[in-house]
Amino acid sequence: MATQEIINIGTLPNDGEGDPLRVAFAKINNNFSNLFPTAINTSSSYSVGDTPGQLIFETDANTFTMAQLYVYAADPSGDSSQSMQLNAQINQELDDAKFSAVGLSVFGNALSSYSMRVLGGNVQLLANPLQDTTIFHFIGSSIIWIGSTLPGIPIELDGYVANSVMATEINQGVTTEQ
């Protein structure tokens, strides 16, 4: 990762000793491009019955340093729903992930608890349903990793349902590039 570029602002206002505007803004752009790469994604899945450990979200462990996951769960046949935020991280060996949950809100009955693991090179979020029913899970995630931006990551619209990957008029997916 490149180092931070400091903008020379001169000694006094308008003394002509600082960086010209074009140089200063180039330094600003470079500083922002050196921040951690981030992938923002939305997805949805269902858990069925009350069997624990049902996979509802998965992402590559190699591009996962930390994340914020927003999980909304709802019983489509009832009036119960819940939402919470999970703050997660992966260990240095990329073989275990931990999270803390904050901001739980529930309407009706609590529907699910969650667990996290790394399996087959992927970080997985698992639902542990508290009700013997079908539960809809909507997950908004911001995955942050150390390193370079990887080419080919699909760019999705934030806040929309699954399959919101941006595409051209001829249905070619819009992705990151090097």
Could you walk me through the main structural features you see in this protein, from its secondary elements to its overall organization?
By secondary structure, the chain is mostly beta strands. It has 2 domains: 1-35, no CATH class; 38-144, Sandwich (Immunoglobulin-like), CATH 2.60.40.1680. 7% of the residues lie in helices and 43% in strands. The protein has 1 helix and 8 strands; from the N terminus they run H-E-E-E-E-E-E-E-E. Strands 1-8-3-4-5 form a 5-stranded antiparallel β-sheet, with no helix packed on it. The two termini are 14 Å apart.
Describe this structure in a few short sentences.
The chain is mainly β. The chain is built from 1 helix and 8 strands; from the N terminus they run αββββββββ.
